[in-house]
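Person: Show me a sequence?

Helper:
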Amino acid sequence: MISQDQFQALLSYNPTDDKVLTLYLNSDSGQEPVEAIKLKAKNMLRGVAEAEKEAALKIEAYLNYSFNWDTPGLVIFSSQGGDFFETYPTAVSFRNRLRITHKPYLKPLAHLLDFYAHYGVVLVDRVGARFFAYHLGELQETSGFMGEEIHKLKQGRGSAAIGRRGGVGGGSREEENARRNLREAAAATLDFFANKPIRRLFLGGTPQTIAQFRELLPKQMQSCLAD
């Protein structure tokens, strides 16, 4: 995983006479065998100029002997002479590509940080909610809230029967319990994400429940909601 500070350091890279090979690789061994992925990388590196052969060989050596193949994405930067060699496994896969430039090619990494850095997911229903905090595709923390269980009351039974003097309609009580659960779930959502640098928040549930829940969230959290 790459941090924002590491990305800034890459942006500040001082070019030299040696070019930088930047390899973005879909390293998901669940989609295809490791040897097939290595072969694709080797084929991409085969066409490099003689001046970049040493940098290409370092990439091949890393894939053959050092990378553990437990993440679906990988970025490698390698320059001739070995003065600059960095690797960044990621939990999000990339489209295979090779760039040879005087500075690290960072556009796909910038896209990764823009879309996958610090986001949250809330799965909500009329009883409770589950909270998930992610960063760059990796789950960082999870928690949940469980409210009062909702029971549908049949008409004509008990003191809550519809139409009975002093009684409360079963449907009305059910809806009130659901609204209370949603209010408390919204408060629990704020508590869970309060100290996390969440940039976007995704909601999951039925359209009706999501519509009610989002109105109960504080304004600062509503501004983070993904469309």
User: Anything to note?
Assistant: The domain at 4-114 is CATH 3.30.960.10 (Translation, Eukaryotic Peptide Chain Release Factor Subunit 1; Chain A). The chain has two domains: 4-114, 117-222.
